[in-house]
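[job 0412] stage=fold_complex status=start
inputs:
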Amino acid sequence: MTVKKLSQIGELALLAKIKKQFGKKSESVLCGIGDDASVLKPLNKFLLLTTDMMVEGVHFDLTFTTPYQLGFKLVSVNVSDIYAMGGQPSHVLLNIAVQKERDLAFIDLLFKGIQDAMKRYQTVLIGGDLSAAPKDMSLSATLIGYADKYLLRSGANIGDKIYVTGNLGDSACGLQLLKRIKNPISLSRKTGSRNNMPSALRTKLTRLGLSWNVVEPLVRRHLMPEARNPAKFVQQATSMIDISDGLLVDLTRLCKESRTGVKIYEEEIPVSSGMKEAAMHMGLSPLALALAGGEDYELLFTAPSGKKVNAICIGDIVQSKMVTVNRKGKEKTFSARGYQHFQVRSERK
Amino acid sequence: MTVKKLSQIGELALLAKIKKQFGKKSESVLCGIGDDASVLKPLNKFLLLTTDMMVEGVHFDLTFTTPYQLGFKLVSVNVSDIYAMGGQPSHVLLNIAVQKERDLAFIDLLFKGIQDAMKRYQTVLIGGDLSAAPKDMSLSATLIGYADKYLLRSGANIGDKIYVTGNLGDSACGLQLLKRIKNPISLSRKTGSRNNMPSALRTKLTRLGLSWNVVEPLVRRHLMPEARNPAKFVQQATSMIDISDGLLVDLTRLCKESRTGVKIYEEEIPVSSGMKEAAMHMGLSPLALALAGGEDYELLFTAPSGKKVNAICIGDIVQSKMVTVNRKGKEKTFSARGYQHFQVRSERK
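[job 0412] stage=fold_complex status=done
writing structure:
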């Protein structure tokens, strides 16, 4: 069996392949992939733009990430930023620098992951750039979206309630599991399926003392996060951010921009029972993972206290103090401890 | 003297610095740098989007490129794609992955180059992403622009004349000089100035037998290309592309999309006298550099034969053959020989 490398087909052939795979017609796109720039007829709404990078060795580790998952996540993290403004994603541009020694199968899976995520979020690929990478892969996506009403980080008011859209800490706990498993795990499209679990993985899970039912949702949340659509509460919300660097860090950002404080009730922070079990097994604190783990890609938003909101309330916007409240009612001041890419010591890795 | 490294200040401090440097108010920007996504009120025109990457070791070589020039070029090559659609650039998103061991001075110069180019093209920075890079730097910009009328590659008609906006081959010749000079050359803002020419460079130029007046415009065209604004002929034009991979390659692209052929008169191709002199000195063919050198960032466009057009006519769009015509009137069929990033043997490097 001959394994075809990227260097054997060249950039133009790869581009033709992508054009075929993604080149479906869309009436919003007057000119898509293949010219110097793409041309859209913009909607008469607020136009949202965001871009996020994923660099090998910084944002992902191919010893436990499949190319499919990488592609899926690249789209999700960018869509999450559009959602976090209260918008809906519409179009995608991609930049992909990849080693020319890569197998074509790797590239196919990467683009399959991108395509599946784009389908999920109903977005259309309109352009991008391909390049060789001498050493590490580097990927970025630019997402375009629209909003009738947009939500800034700065809109929170004293007296607002603060909400999250789902369990926190699953992704960070999943990452800790993956660092112990040290294998790529292919995940089926349906959550909880055991398809294709290699026997080496079975052995490792047994050794960890954890079942696949516990591990699967956690590693899935890390490897293939799905961004949360804010459509059902965007009208009620006053401010919003997505949780990428951990609840406390992103909460601090929101409060700083809004010039408010916040009071968070530890008991109200949603954590999954699987995360608790896995964290305990690894000697980690479920609360710490939920507060500071990061890469949750849940939405964190505020809404006036009288409104009925379809999300999980975890605290109140207050005048100035930044505190967590434990189950005994004891307040503790917190400060942001971020994941800063250039610092020698980082929280997230 | 202590040299400050990026790792000593961290991502957030760098972000704050950039926000201060670029965060000037613009009425088109409802939300710029610093939230999850940026928010624009789109104009009621065609919206143009493009993105291009520059990867260390593939697109640039820091042994003869200054960080200022790198930043300037990153913006120019992306603006060139907006111009090539007949549009005007308006907003910029940046992705920058850089080694954390870099001096702050390097980053400052990089962003100064970006800023100066952005001023030149009257664009506003609205967002982006910063990351550490384990090994090689990788940069990308996404450019947003608008057009009242947009020009595709596919619009050329048989009988149209074909035009370019300036001299070809200067950039490729400049690159050949830089590979021999093997030093970064700081270029002043004004073309032709001798400011800051280090004596080591003077010696190398003497050894090459070339004067600074000859060398400066050539290396400048490679290191700090300025994109060509199509405003003065966009109404007459029928199709357009920018010359990034060499005249013959980009001409082939335009003709393929337009389903036409082309006849190019070698005598009409504009080349600078300095390029001829430098190419001869290096034993290179000026014509080959002009036809296939690449990175010219001149515009290549077509217009009906009766129209008065403010550019240099180099040939005619014909039914099917792809030929160059030499001074004796002899036709020679050409084929595209592209710069493909993933192929082992490439033309451009």
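[job 0412] summary: The two ends of chain B are 38 Å apart (CA to CA).
[job 0412] exit 0
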